[in-house]
Amino acid sequence: MMPVLAALAFGYLLGSIPFGLLITRAAGLGDVRKIGSGNIGATNVLRTGNRKLAALTLLLDALKGAAAVLIAGVYGTELGIVAGFAAFIGHLFPAWLGFKGGKGVATYLGVAAAMLWQGALVFAAAWLATAFIGRYSSLAALVACIATPLAAYLLGYVDISIVLAVMSIIVFVKHRANISRLLAGTESKIGSRG
Predict the structure, then answer these.
(1) How far apart are CA 91 and CA 108, in angstroms?
(2) CB within 10 Å: which end of the chain, N or C, has fewer?
(3) Are the C-beta atoms of residues 116 and 159 closer than 8 Å to each other?
(4) Could you tell me if 45 and 53 are in contact, meaning their C-beta atoms sit under 8 angstroms apart?
């Protein structure tokens, strides 16, 4: 039981590092939570107009998810999965930001990449294709989060597909406002500052 608790704590602490907020503040752009959607993730950082900072946020948010899986995974595959899930939760609900974090898409990608590289390829392909066609980051994320656990299941990784499916459900819940805006035709497109 202690190794599981340690993996949970490690993953949560790593996942709860708010890179988007730290990066924008360090760059002198203020608090990213006060612009656009108020989110700390890469999509909202992009609304500052700084693509490099948005890309860095995406990379670091993904890396913290992957690192949680890989580091804890040294002590057992199951512990890696536990730590990865905890990192995802930590990104969504960081204690030091009043449990108001990001929507978890980049961290999801990092966790998926570390657990099953093929799943990460499916995620990236689904996201890129949907974003290219529709120009909606939120829609691209939702499509990718459907495709990834399905791919894991079809590849025979049932345990991983279950974990990814649970994470996907959480992503959908966190995107409920985006879903409403998509249905209403008022969702911001990629590159929009609104």
Answers:
(1) 10
(2) N
(3) no
(4) yes
- The C-alpha angle with vertex 98 and arms to 40 and 193, in degrees rounded to 5, equals 25
pLDDT of 125 reads 96
What does the H/E/C string look like for the chain? CHHHHHHHHHHHHHHCCCHHHHHHHHCCCCCHHHCCCCCCCHHHHHCCCCHHHHHHHHHHHHHHHHHHHHHHHCCCHHHHHHHHHHHHHHHHCCHHHCCCCCCCHHHHHHHHHHHCHHHHHHHHHHHHHHHHHHCCHHHHHHHHHHHHHHHHHHCCCHHHHHHHHHHHHHHHHHCHHHHHHHHHCCCCCCCCCC
- Residue 152: both structure tokens together: 């894991």
Q: What is the pLDDT of residue 192?
A: 62
pTM reported for the whole predicted model: 0.92
> In terms of C-beta distances under 8 Å and separation of at least 24 residues, what long-range contacts does 154-158 make, across chains too?
155/116, 155/118, 155/119, 157/115, 157/116, 157/119
Distances (CA, A) of 63 to 59, 67, 68, 71, 182: 6, 6, 8, 12, 29
Give the per-residue pLDDT at 165.
98
